[in-house]
């Protein structure tokens, strides 16, 4: 593999990483993962992600409110996210979107927070880092009016159907693929549609500490996912797509530059 891999989805602010941030980053770098996007899911964690991104070279962050936390969206939070998003480490608005699976916030609260963050991204001319679960039609209905006003978007941790991925691709979205695709029980449908995603729209992520690849050997005793395992996801995805791993690595690096404006070669 080449000298650079980029993980677009690392929840380094998770309590599961609270005791060993330095070690997690060091292991990622040792594995060849020299770029990471640290995900913000509410205001405090977005602020923490930005501080971490300023501490660790090769790290950037998002600023936003996850649909689970949609009820926390207020004018004060909006102003704070706006201010935070202007920091140089912050390269996208999000994680934002809709999640009607568990409705930790009501659908109305989620939709209000999502729409407000799309407006914020348009105002700041920033890409968006998107989340959608069990809400595809409503998600696209809210997103579509903004797509000409924002520079780009990635649907992170895609686990939907062939028709859903095609709709997203038709709208110009990038697609984030995680270790979910390595799950021989739940990931087979996703694995089968991998070739339908154009290489220039594909991004790779661990979503660590979640979604540890089920076929990872040896399995860590902690059962915790880490960005150091991104090479396993990269190699698996390349194999299922019928592509050389080094080629796909270079292509996804280029996609990171295109979407987030990050100079991965400058790390």
Automatic annotation (TrEMBL):
Record keywords, A-Z = Cytoplasm, Exonuclease, Hydrolase, Magnesium, Metal-binding, Nuclease
Give any GO molecular function from the UniProt entry: 3'-5'-RNA exonuclease activity
Name the enzyme's class.
Answer: hydrolase
Record-linked CDD domains = TatD_DNAse
- Cofactor list: Mg(2+)
Q: What is its EC number?
A: 3.1.11.-, 3.1.13.-
NCBIfam families on file? PRK10425.1
State the family it belongs to: Belongs to the metallo-dependent hydrolases superfamily. TatD-type hydrolase family. TatD subfamily.
HAMAP family cross-referenced by the UniProt entry: TatD_exonuclease
Protein name per UniProt: 3'-5' ssDNA/RNA exonuclease TatD
Question: Coding gene?
Answer: tatD
């Amino acid at each position: 593999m080449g000298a650079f891999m980029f993980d677009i989805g690392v929840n380094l602010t998770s309590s599961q990483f609270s005791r060993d941030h330095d070690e997690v980053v060091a292991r990622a770098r040792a594995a060849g993962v020299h770029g990471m996007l640290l995900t913000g899911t509410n205001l405090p964690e977005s602020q923490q992600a930005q501080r971490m991104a300023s501490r660790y070279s090769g790290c950037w962050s998002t600023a936003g409110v996850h649909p689970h936390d949609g009820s926390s969206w207020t004018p004060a939070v909006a102003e704070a996210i706006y201010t935070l998003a202007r920091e140089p480490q912050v390269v996208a608005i999000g994680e934002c979107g809709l999640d009607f699976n568990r409705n930790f916030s009501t659908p109305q609260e989620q939709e209000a927070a999502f729409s407000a963050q799309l407006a914020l991204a348009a105002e700041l001319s920033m890409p968006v880092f998107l989340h959608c679960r069990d809400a595809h039609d409503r998600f696209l209905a809210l997103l579509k009016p903004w797509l000409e006003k924002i520079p780009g978007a990635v649907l992170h941790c895609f686990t939907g159907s062939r028709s859903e991925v095609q709709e997203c691709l038709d709208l110009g979205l990038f697609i984030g693929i995680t270790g979910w695709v390595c799950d021989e029980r739940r990931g087979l449908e996703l694995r089968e549609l991998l070739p339908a995603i154009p290489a220039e729209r594909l991004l790779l992520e661990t979503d660590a500490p979640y979604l540890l690849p089920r076929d990872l050997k040896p399995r860590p005793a902690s059962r915790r996912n880490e960005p150091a395992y991104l090479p396993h996801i990269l190699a698996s995805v390349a194999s299922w797509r019928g592509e050389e791993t080094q080629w796909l690595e270079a292509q996804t690096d280029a996609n990171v530059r295109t979407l987030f404006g990050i100079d991965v070669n400058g790390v």
